[in-house]
Specification:
With about 190 residues, the chain is mostly helical. The protein has six helices and two strands, in the order βαααβααα. It has one domain. α2 runs antiparallel to α3 and α5 packs antiparallel against α6. About 30% of the residues are buried.
Length: about 190
């Protein structure tokens, strides 16, 4: 089960949407290298699941940490929260709760040795829907950009929608990335 949350006030300083992307440049560099490691670990996970039906705990925790770090950075870049995303690399499936952006993935006891071959295929309906939902999220984010510049506050419905799309995307990524066999719901909640 994938849990993604954001517990931050709706108020954001009006200038922040203009500079968050720039302040996050060091995070982009770290994420670049973490995504390379993630690709290697996912291939390694494929073979460990194929032969043992499990992902080694250290690899699972590392992959979850990468997704958590990515969520924290994207929530900062998207000015969904004010505090700077920490360079925190806690290897745990359950989020330590030290940041407003939280992501946890429950580690399954066993994973299907057969599903690893076609999870990507089973996720195609999600990809199709997420294309349209993602486009809507970009427009919602752009509208929020203007609203935050003017009022200094995220519209609650727009932020819930953008966070919901992020939640959905991360659930699909965890499924296709071999972290869970639980088919993701077609849901923003």
């Amino acid at each position: 089960m994938v849990t993604l949350e954001l517990e931050a006030p709706l108020e954001v300083a009006r200038w922040r949407p203009l500079v968050h992307w720039l302040l996050a440049v060091p995070h982009y560099v770290v994420l670049y290298f973490l995504r390379i490691v993630s690709g290697v670990l996912t291939v390694l996970s494929f073979f460990t699941i194929l032969f043992t039906g499990q992902i080694p705990e250290a690899i699972f925790d590392f992959l979850v940490m990468i997704l958590r770090y990515q969520w924290r950075v994207s929530s900062y870049v998207g000015f969904l929260r004010e505090p700077y995303a920490p360079f925190e690399f806690t290897l745990a499936t359950v989020d330590p709760g030290t940041d407003p952006a939280r992501l946890s993935i429950e580690r399954p006891e066993r994973l299907s040795r057969v599903l690893i071959f076609f999870k990507w295929f089973l996720a195609i309906p999600h990809y199709i829907v997420l294309i349209f939902v993602g486009i809507a999220a970009v427009f919602a984010w752009l509208a929020a950009f203007v609203v935050v510049l003017v009022t200094g506050r995220w519209p609650d419905g727009l932020r819930r929608f953008v966070v919901g799309v992020s939640r959905w995307i991360n659930r699909v990524y965890a499924y296709v990335g071999l972290l869970t066999d639980e088919y993701p719901p077609f849901s923003l909640s």
